[in-house]
Amino acid sequence: MDRTDRFINNRAPKKLLLIFLVLVVISAGIAYFISGICADRIVSAQVRSELAAAGGGKFTDIPQEEYIANGEELFSSYSIDRNLPPKLMKSYSSVRNTVFIPIFGLLSLLSAVWFAVALRELMKIYIDLEKLRDECIEAADKAGCVINLYGEDLGSVHRISDAAERLVNRINSLRIKLLSEQHFQRTFLADLSHQIKTALAVVRLNTDMLSELDDLSPERRDKLSDEVQLNLDSMEKLVIEAIKLAKLNADAVEYHMEPCCLAEICELAVKRMSPLLRSQKISADMELDRSIIMNCDKGWLCEAAENVIKNSADHADCSELKVKLYEDAVLTTIAISDNGKGIPQEDIPKLFERFSIKSNDKTMYSSGLGMSISQKIVRAHGGEILVYSKLGEGTRFEFVFVKS
């Protein structure tokens, strides 16, 4: 946008022009008024000087009263005296114009200077705003754009550009988050479809064998049927866990927070996992302080503990599992430890990735989503899961919550 466009397409320059014209008119009125006063006084002084000169005084001297009186007496027959209206004198107009022009010119010049300075400053503001607009448009179309700060410190344009910078930073942050979520959705759907396709392939193969082979023994037929059922259970578990993880990622879960005894939650988690622990000959030991109360959602927090217990049972090759509950002045901690093979340090960050670890669960009941779900549940409660592990000695998972 050039200067002409800025002038035409904005109201403020037109208002400045209107104010300038009004100032010119006011300047003309002031100049006319002042010039009238000056002309009256100048012409009156000329009349007194001429009367004094006619009454015997010198024209170059200051008119004295007696000479003025003599002059009035001399011109009394013409009705000429010191009170003669100045406007009747022929020189009145020229005197008034002589005074009017410089006064009007000076006031108009001051108004013009004000108009030029004000218009220049206004155009600078418009230029800054147009640059800011262009940067905002570019930031809306491209990622990673920045907004420069314009205008004087603490000025309106500076504050607007600062606000625009914050908004663009927020947009860039949301764009990055959106790209991350899109990547998550793509990889999640790819992993999920792969898991389901694998189970479906087994189901399809077994059902084809059951329907096409007539000479199968009852034992072989029962085994194929069991495998079909196991894979169907696996797909059901996978879909349920996937939906649950999707809700957690979308913050669509409503947690019913209430004061709960954490010891009861830990006992319930171990009880629910006891069939799995018995099948793998894993003993469970609990050291729980029943006085510890925390504001939480009992069902969800219990599920987080169950997932960690199941993870240890599936992958740790352990024979003992211990659940401990304790607190200090700052933290409340639920610790779940095993005496298994341990986890390499470089693999610990991968524990909470989806489908990152294949299960050893012979029932194929592991979805590969449990640890990710547990992490999101604990974080939703304001906590974090810490992992300590040493090869050959076991692993310790800690749910750590800051006391409020």
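(ticket continues) Second input and output from the same batch:
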Amino acid sequence: MSKNVKAMNKTLVNLKYKSIIKKGLLNDFLTYKLRIKDSNTGLATLSYLMDYGQMLVDTGSNVTVLVIGIDNFKNFNERYGHLVANDILIKFGKRLEQKTKELNAVVGRLGGDEFIIIIKDLPTLHAKSIADEIHYLMNDETYEIGSIEKPIKVPFSIGEAFSTNEFPLNIAKLIQKAEANLYYIKYKNRIESNIIGEDVFHNQANQLLKVLAEKDMYTYVHSQYTAKYAAELAEALNLSNKKVEQIYFAGWLHDIGKIIISSDILRKPNVLDEYEYSIIKEHVVNGLNIIRNFNFPETVKNAILYHHERWDGNGYPYGVSHYNTPIEGRILQITDAFSAMTVKRIYRQQLSIDSALEELKENMGTQFDPELTKVFINLMKTRKAIM
């Protein structure tokens, strides 16, 4: 860690200290100090990095956020056990610190198998290549683990986001953007090599997503998160890697039918009327008609076709219920709704994570598969707890 970053860290702690002491809350300050370092890895905690990163943004610094995720980390748990997997986490985090020590960087634990790096004042051109540089530096690294005979490699992916003093973004948005980018990269790589033996994200599919982004950026961002949550839920359900990848891909494309809906309706700054809503509902069949031009697996098609059906049969376009909807469709029903509630829209603020989970809970057994919803709620609560 550079001298400049150490000075900034000290300033941040001192400011927090003075604020708390003024209120006569010394015990709160001691608690705050305990929150600075993750108890497992010794790296900075997410809450500390949020404070630090926001201070950089507020003081006019350029900020680069990298989110690093270990690929297929559950395989380490299954093959070597939780103690060895935990040792891998710790050593990987320390290696990240070593490889970024020449930068104005702070390395922290985002949660689970994900890490976060906040870098101060990288030149713009360097910021755009720093993820590739770190990946190059660490891709062939090996790790000595006591109970394993040979050193092992740890595959990983990196997502990045940038904020400049000309176009500042708050730190929460930066982290969300970097994490969404991470999942795009992680699952894109797996899809290209595994789903159907060819590059599924070929030029035509990429062009569709570009059109979607240009047509309605909310839908594009919402699709990123739908895909991310869907893959996480599919993994928690122990579905095969191929099925997880296909469901992730379906999450990206589930709203692709909206590219042929009028922008006036998509971007309307208040709630849709009955006619406009009927047009929006056509995006399911429109999307299926579009992707029929591609050689996508049935899992992808089913997830798109059934993502607006309901457990009680009151959904659309066909009104099917319960297990008549394939599991990929039931997964997308949950993650599509959760993403829609937690991503900001023009006409309403997003809900908090807790509020959105409560909405899911209240609609178990009516809108959503109750068992899958329980798994998803527990998954999100566990992720929040380890942050």
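Agent notes: The longest helix spans residues 171-194. The chain has two domains: 1-169, 195-387. Closing as not reproducible unless the customer responds.
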